[in-house]
Every structure is written in structure tokens, then in C-alpha cells.
UniProtKB/TrEMBL annotation:
Taxonomic lineage of the native organism: Eukaryota, Viridiplantae, Streptophyta, Embryophyta, Tracheophyta
InterPro entries the UniProt entry points to: Inositol_tetrakis-P_1-kinase, InsP(3)kin_ATP-grasp, ITPK1_N
Keywords carried by this UniProt record: ATP-binding, Kinase, Magnesium, Metal-binding, Nucleotide-binding, Transferase
E.C. number(s) listed in UniProt: 2.7.1.134
Catalytic reaction equation(s): 1D-myo-inositol 3,4,5,6-tetrakisphosphate + ATP = 1D-myo-inositol 1,3,4,5,6-pentakisphosphate + ADP + H(+)
Its job: Kinase that can phosphorylate various inositol polyphosphate such as Ins(3,4,5,6)P4 or Ins(1,3,4)P3.
Subunit field text: Monomer.
Cofactor binding, per record: Binds 2 magnesium ions per subunit.
Organism annotation: Citrullus colocynthis (colocynth)
Basic and acidic residues composition-biased segments: 318-339, 348-359
Record's protein name: Inositol-tetrakisphosphate 1-kinase
């Protein structure tokens, strides 16, 4: 009998394609019956395939429409992840709202988000009342987090004097001292992996020198050594000495977020408050992050794809069984109704299948 293969079409921007689709991943997946096939986003999706699953980090109205059409034609295929679920991560307020709504019972650790406000216009930026309760330094982050270079442009703000340089809409988030180390938690379906990365130093104003009230930066944890804000500081930093957060606590948060956001592929950034060593703050959530930086990413992703293949198989089998049952049911009905034409030709109203994968 011919081997049944599971075909995943991927639609990724060039940068992501180069980092994620590595030979090591493609060959491991292929050896376990999974084919990774590039989707040509310049051509209609429905002209390509067939695909059992679509993996995408690609935006735009046209792409959304194409996914809707694909879903109608392929109700048993998976779309990772649903554009509606991803959408929430494109706004830094809605992104962290899910964290605030999350309830996790844990006697030893607590979690939340830093104090923050959203500013839509210059006028409000200078309105001291709007700042009430917010302490300097703050980090100004673009409200929109759509993956553009602009959306990663941050600024550390130390006082009111340089507010003119900020461009709303922005989120102003209190800077929390956290020992210069950030925890990145990668989620792939049920899999959760927490790693350490370098971050901004505690008391940045003192550590980074005279910074004129405002210091701009972008993607600190991705920086190459040449770009680091203060190389001496990073040399001094002993990343290895930093204790990891309790894994079960992090896993609980990851699973909670996954459930409420209905996403399979994301990561989130966590910092530990230096003042309250058991308090963790979630500062960022990213859709389809740089998984290739995760140790052993090929196996993790391949295992996840294999799980999908099994789920798809189960769906197909359930459909086949239903078809047989319907056919039998239908034949009996036809026999009962006799010559009633409508009775025999009824189509089955199929249960709407979710394209995201939940256990
Ligand atoms: N409230 C905060 N307190 C202290 N440091 C922070 C805070 N918010 C952000 N940072 C630092 O700034 C960096 C960038 O912030 P953030 O993660 O929100 O930006 P991003 O551009 O969305 O990052 P990514 O590349 O992970 O998508 C963080 O990795 C962390 O080092
Ligand atoms: O490749 P992309 O453009 O998707 O970049 C993503 C980047 O992954 P990369 O390592 O592949 O650059 C991620 O890094 P890690 O959190 O894993 O460190 C994170 O910075 C995301 O925010 C970026 O997504 P964006 O916010 O820009 O959509
Ligand atoms: Mg981040
Ligand atoms: Mg981000």
C-alpha cells in the first residue's frame, strides 16, 4: 500500500522562510511522512496543493480571503493559526489583556503585566493626568505590533522633557528592573520551552550613561554584539547564573494563554521583578517567533506536525464512518419514504470543524 503523507504548505515572508525552513527541519519531517511545501503567495492558494495543513505568517486582506476560501473547500485541513486569533497580537494592549484575564492558582509565584497606559495623540502625551500612577523610566512601544521594523522601535524615557520625540499611538509601560535577563517562552501546540536571553540592565539610566532623557532601541534580545547598547555591561552579565522560573508555573501560564488565545504557535517574554523575586511580568507576546533559535527545534516542530497528521487521519476516518452511517441511514430513509424525491437527496449538514487544534 502507498505510504500516506501529510502535506504542509507554508506561506512565510522571506526572512522567516530563511530562518525557519532549514534543510535539517525539512529532512527530519520528510523522514516521518511530513512534506513541507512552499506556497507561492503570488498565485491563488486554491490552485496549489493539495495541503492538509497551512502554516503561515503572512498578512493582508487578500490572504485572509484566500484562507477563508481554502477553509470552505478543505474543511478537514488545519490552518495554523486562524487570522482572527493572530490579530489580537497586533496590538500591544489587546495582546496583554489576555494575561490580565488569566487565573492561575499558585501559592508561591505571581504574575501580571507592568503598569501601562495607551496614548493615541500628542495632546494626551503632555497631559500629566493621563500619566497618573506611572513612574519613570517608562518604555514607549508602538501600539501596533504588526511585525514591521517600525513596530519594534522602542524608547526608554527617563523624564517629561523629551516627550516631543515620541510618536503616538504608543503604549507607555513602566520599566521594571529585572536583573538584565529575560525569559522567552516558546509554545508549539502542547510543547513549552523556556530560555534565557539578555535584556536591558537594571536602572538603565545609571548603567547606560547620560542618555539625554530618551534612549531608542530595537529588538534587544536579538542584537548582535556590535549593536549592544553597552557591551561592557553584557560582558559583566553572567546569564548562566540566573535562575530559571519554575517550569510548572511557566507551563501553566503558557497553557492558559494558549487556550484563551486559541493559538498554537507563539512565544512570550517574561521578566522577573528584581524587587519581588517571586513576581513575574509578561511584557510581549509574538506570533510564530524565531523557533530556529530554540534548541532542537526540528524535533519539536516535527513531533507537532506528526500530531496534526494523526488528528487529520482521525477526522478523515470519522468522516468516512459518518458517510457510511449516513448512507445506510439515507437508504433506510429512502426505503421508508418510498418515492419521495427529497428524502433520498438530503445533504448532511456537517459539523463546523475548528481549524485550530485543541486537545
Ligand atoms: N516593562 C519593561 N521593563 C523592563 N524591560 C522591558 C520592558 N518592556 C520591554 N523591555 C525590554 O525591551 C525589550 C523589547 O520589548 P518588547 O519585547 O516589548 O519588544 P518587541 O519589539 O515586541 O520584542 P520582540 O523582538 O520579542 O518581538 C524586551 O526584550 C526587554 O528587554
Ligand atoms: O522572523 P520574524 O520577522 O517573524 O521575527 C520574529 C522574531 O523571530 P526571528 O528570530 O525569526 O527574527 C522573534 O524573535 P524571538 O522572540 O524568537 O527572539 C520576535 O522578535 C518576533 O517579534 C519577530 O516577529 P515580528 O514581531 O517581527 O512579526
Ligand atoms: Mg519581545
Ligand atoms: Mg514582540
Amino acid at each position: 500500500m502507498e505510504e500516506r503523507r501529510f502535506c504542509i504548505g507554508y506561506a512565510l515572508a522571506p526572512k522567516k522562510r530563511h530562518s525557519f525552513i532549514q534543510d535539517s527541519l525539512v529532512s527530519l519531517a520528510a523522514s516521518r511522512g511530513i512534506d513541507l511545501v512552499r506556497i507561492d503567495t503570488e498565485r491563488p492558494l486554491l490552485d496549489q496543493g493539495p495541503f492538509d495543513c497551512i502554516l503561515h505568517k503572512f498578512y493582508g486582506e487578500d490572504w485572509r480571503k484566500q484562507l477563508v476560501e481554502f477553509r470552505v473547500k478543505n474543511p478537514n485541513a488545519f490552518i495554523l493559526d486562524s487570522p482572527d486569533s493572530i490579530e489580537r497580537l497586533h496590538n500591544r494592549i489587546s495582546m496583554l489583556q489576555v494575561v490580565s484575564e488569566l487565573k492561575i492558582e499558585n501559592p508561591d509565584e505571581s504574575f501580571g503585566i507592568p503598569k501601562q497606559i495607551v496614548i493615541y495623540d500628542k495632546e494626551t502625551l503632555f497631559d500629566r493626568q493621563a500619566w497618573e500612577g506611572l513612574k519613570f523610566p517608562v518604555i514607549a512601544k508602538p501600539l501596533v505590533a504588526d511585525g514591521s521594523a517600525k513596530s519594534h522601535k522602542m524608547a526608554l524615557v527617563f523624564n517629561h522633557d523629551c516627550l516631543n520625540k515620541l510618536k503616538p499611538p504608543i503604549v507607555l509601560q513602566e520599566f521594571v528592573n529585572h536583573g538584565g535577563v529575560i525569559f522567552k517562552v516558546y509554545v508549539v501546540g502542547q510543547y513549552v520551552k523556556c530560555v534565557k536571553r539578555k535584556s536591558l540592565p537594571d536602572e538603565p539610566e545609571a548603567k547606560l550613561g547620560n542618555v539625554d532623557g530618551l534612549l531608542s532601541f530595537s529588538q534587544v534580545s536579538n542584537m548582535t554584539p556590535r549593536e549592544k547598547i553597552d557591551d561592557k555591561y553584557y560582558k559583566m552579565m553572567q546569564l548562566d547564573d540566573t535562575e530559571m522560573p519554575p517550569l510548572s508555573f511557566i507551563t501553566d501560564i503558557a497553557r492558559g494563554l494558549q487556550r484563551s488565545m486559541n493559538l498554537n504557535l507563539f512565544n512570550f517574554d517574561v521578566i522577573r521583578d528584581s524587587k519581588i523575586g517571586t513576581r513575574y511580568l509578561i511584557i510581549d507576546i509574538n506570533y510564530f517567533p524565531g523557533y530556529a533559535k530554540m534548541p532542537g527545534y526540528e524535533k519539536v516542530l516535527t513531533d507537532f506536525f506528526c500530531d496534526l497528521a494523526q488528528k487529520k487521519e482521525a477526522l478523515n476516518n470519522a468522516d468516512k464512518k459518518k458517510d457510511v452511517e449516513d448512507k445506510i441511514g439515507c437508504d433506510q430513509e429512502t426505503r421508508k419514504i418510498g418515492s419521495d424525491e427529497d428524502g433520498g437527496g438530503q445533504s448532511v449538514d456537517r459539523e463546523k470543524k475548528e481549524t485550530t487544534v485543541q486537545d
